[in-house]
Amino acid sequence: MTYSTNYDKIDWSNFQPRPRAIPSTPAAPSTLPAPMVMGDLPEYISPVTGKPVDGRVARREDLKRSGCREVDPSEFKPKYRSEKLRKKYSKKAER
Hints:
- This protein has two helices and two strands, in the order ββαα.
- The chain is mostly helical.
- It has a domain at 40-69.
């Protein structure tokens, strides 16, 4: 029995439509008292010493060994190569 030629012979009395999909809702924040776990830093070459630095501990040691420190974002003032770039990117920072 093929569907296209015998459609009128199908017994639809027991037909049950499939349930509709439940619309997705955003997940509620977790109430678990667990800390967030941060992954380790990927390996990179130190610009000061030229040696590979792998992870947060190695990064702190490298900064201490070379007498460097992290730059606070409030201390950073970008230098632009042209007035056009300065206007373009300073507008983005103000948003």
